[in-house]
Every structure is written in structure tokens, then in C-alpha cells.
């Protein structure tokens, strides 16, 4: 695996475009979460698929699916970003969060489970905190059941984040936003009730709703227990796909009053609710979820000028799993 291109900076976030041995382009991200310094929280976001088979209308990573990444290819992304920042492989961050959420839904790839098994021994002494975000594909129940077992055995006591991206409380709208067969809200709730153990963090129900899509806190409260689930509200990121679909985000970074009103409706229904609006500069960097730098105008322009990467100082030796 080799590095083709990088964008961003070491202050907020950096996206790396990598090429696998078969020529597929994938991405991984290193970032911090202001105002927390890197020593408090360091975030890596890795790809698990070569593209994504789902093709959600707000996500640029779909539509060009080329298969699953191997266990070693997933680990190679992590090792690369670790070696770049911490050559000794000694990660000082109080929380080292690894999100399996850049390109592809991790539930489609059993190699993710093997990576989760290996991380504690691969980086002993580090505060590894995995994060799995999935749409709950209907035929991937075995993956999620195995994930539950690994979480209990390897990452107990609040050292794991589970997130279901549902985007709407209306099943028809969910099918439009997530055009693949998924578990129903009732199935997600039943699994989450079993997944959440004493001491665990609450399971996140993520909404990135476009305007006009139903999100009803009362419907959610009839299905999910606020004791085990929380709500995260995020904007629809300004991706190429969202623009083509004519999507406008219900959560508007420029309208804090309207955002507060939405948050308070979920809190009134009993849910801990997070309004997750990151640094707007991440949109320019392309580090937000759903974006795909390798498909961007900037990347295409740089690729057409072979010397650009050398001038930027981004050419690196081939990456190999350690």
C-alpha cells in the first residue's frame, strides 16, 4: 500500500489517499477534536471497504464498490498513521479513538472483527477506543453478534462506541437515505438492549437528516430506551452526492436557534442529545464523514500534474503492514 496524496494539516485533520496493491484508492484520516489537545484525544478514521456497496445519496464513498479490505490492509492504515505521528509506537493520548467509518460500512467486512481482536496486543499500553458505525445491514446479524462478544471480552467498561446511522424515524425515508436492506428500528433496539452492558457508553443513534425527512422524538422514544441509547444530530455534509440529490441539511451550522429547538425536542423525550457540528474547515479539508477526497476536483487536478505531489512533499515509500 502506498501514499498517493494528502490534504489538510496537522493542527485539525489530515486525509491520506492510499493505493492498495490491486490499484484501489482508499482513504484514512488523522484528526483531533478541538478544543481537546492530541494528548487528550487522538482520532484515526480508517476505511474497511474499497468504496461502498450501499450508495447513500449524501455520501461520496458509494457507487464504486470494489470489494473488502483485508485484515492487513486495515491494520496498515492504522500502523501508517501511528508511525507518522509516533515512530516509537507509544501513543500518549488519554483516549485513542479508532473509527472504522471512512469508506464503507464496517459490518460488511468480517476482517474488522479480526482487527479488533488484535489491536490490544498490537499496541499494548495504549488507550485504544474503537468506534463502529453501521446502518445495520439486514444480512449481517452474525457480524454484530460476534462484535457484541468481542466488545464484552476485549473492550468492557465504556471502552467501545457503538453507533447506528438511522437518519430518520420513518421507514420509507430510511430506505431512501440508506438504499439497502437494513434492520428495522425495532431490531436495532432489541440488539442494542443486549449490546449495552453495565458500565458501557450509551449506544448512539445518529441522524444526519435532510430537510423534509421525518425525525420524530416520540417515535424514537416508543422504540428505544433512553437508558441505553443517546441521539447525535449532525449536518448533512456538503458532499458532491448531496449536492446532486438537492439535499439541504436540517441541522444548519448557521442557524443555532433552530438547531437548539431540535435538540430540545429529543431531550424532552428523555434522550441525552449531542449536537455534533465540527470545525467548518473540515469541509474544505474533506475529513468529514461521507466525503471522498479521491473523487474531488482538487485531487483530480493534482493527479493531472504529476509533479504536484512532489512539490507538496507527500510522496512516501510503499506502506507495508508491520
Rg result: 19 Å
Looking at CATH, which topology would you report?
TIM Barrel
Name given to the CATH homologous superfamily: Aldolase class I
Strand content: 15-25%
Helical/strand content category? alpha/beta
- The number of helical elements comes to 11
Question: What is the overall pLDDT average?
Answer: 88
Explain what you see:
This protein has 322 residues and is α/β, with parallel strands linked by helices. The chain has one domain: Aldolase class I (TIM Barrel, Alpha-Beta Barrel), CATH 3.20.20. 32% of the residues lie in helices and 18% in strands. The chain has helices spanning 71-85, 111-122, 141-154, 171-177, 185-195, 217-223, 240-244, 256-268, 281-285, 297-303, 307-312; strands at 2-8, 13-19, 25-31, 41-45, 95-100, 128-134, 161-165, 203-207, 229-233, 273-275. A 10-stranded mixed β-sheet has the order 1-2-3-4-5-6-7-8-9-10. Strand 6 (128-134), helix 3 and strand 7 (161-165) form a beta-alpha-beta unit. Helix 1 runs parallel beside helix 2 (111-122) and helix 2 (111-122) packs parallel to helix 3 (141-154). It is globular, with a radius of gyration of 19 Å.
Produce the secondary structure layout.
Layout: E1 2-8, E2 13-19, E3 25-31, E4 41-45, H1 71-85, E5 95-100, H2 111-122, E6 128-134, H3 141-154, E7 161-165, H4 171-177, H5 185-195, E8 203-207, H6 217-223, E9 229-233, H7 240-244, H8 256-268, E10 273-275, H9 281-285, H10 297-303, H11 307-312
Amino acid at each position: 500500500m502506498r501514499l498517493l496524496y494528502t490534504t489538510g494539516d496537522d493542527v485539525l485533520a489530515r486525509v491520506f489517499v492510499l493505493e492498495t496493491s490491486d490499484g484501489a484508492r482508499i482513504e484514512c484520516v488523522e484528526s483531533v477534536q478541538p478544543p481537546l489537545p492530541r494528548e487528550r484525544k487522538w482520532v484515526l478514521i480508517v476505511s474497511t471497504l474499497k468504496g461502498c456497496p450501499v450508495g447513500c445519496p449524501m455520501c461520496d464513498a458509494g457507487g464504486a464498490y470494489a470489494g473488502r479490505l483485508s485484515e492487513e490492509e486495515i491494520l496498515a492504515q492504522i500502523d501508517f498513521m501511528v508511525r507518522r505521528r509516533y515512530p516509537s509506537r507509544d501513543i500518549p493520548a488519554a483516549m485513542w479513538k479508532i473509527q472504522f467509518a471512512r469508506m464503507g460500512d464496517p459490518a460488511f467486512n468480517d476482517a474488522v472483527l479480526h482487527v479488533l481482536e488484535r489491536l490490544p496486543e498490537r499496541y499494548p499500553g495504549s488507550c485504544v477506543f474503537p468506534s463502529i458505525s453501521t446502518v445495520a445491514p439486514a444480512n449481517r446479524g452474525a457480524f454484530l453478534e460476534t462484535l457484541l462478544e468481542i466488545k464484552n471480552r476485549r473492550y468492557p467498561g465504556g471502552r467501545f462506541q457503538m453507533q447506528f446511522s438511522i437518519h430518520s424515524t420513518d421507514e420509507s425515508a430510511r430506505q431512501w437515505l440508506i438504499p439497502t436492506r437494513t434492520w428495522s428500528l425495532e431490531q436495532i433496539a432489541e440488539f442494542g438492549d443486549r449490546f449495552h452492558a453495565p458500565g458501557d457508553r450509551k449506544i448512539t443513534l445518529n441522524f444526519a437528516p435532510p430537510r423534509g425527512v421525518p425525525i420524530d422524538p416520540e417515535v424514537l422514544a416508543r422504540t428505544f430506551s433512553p437508558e441505553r441509547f443517546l441521539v447525535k444530530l449532525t449536518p448533512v455534509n456538503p458532499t458532491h452526492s448531496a449536492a446532486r440529490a438537492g439535499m439541504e441539511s436540517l441541522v444548519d451550522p448557521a442557524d443555532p436557534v433552530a438547531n437548539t429547538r431540535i435538540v430540545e425536542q429529543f431531550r424532552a423525550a428523555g434522550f441525552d442529545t449531542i449536537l455534533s457540528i465540527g470545525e467548518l474547515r473540515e469541509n474544505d479539508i474533506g475529513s468529514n464523514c461521507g466525503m471522498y477526497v479521491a473523487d474531488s476536483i482538487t485531487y483530480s487536478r493534482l493527479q493531472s500534474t504529476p509533479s504536484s505531489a512532489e512539490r507538496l512533499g507527500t510522496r512516501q515509500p510503499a506502506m507495508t503492514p508491520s
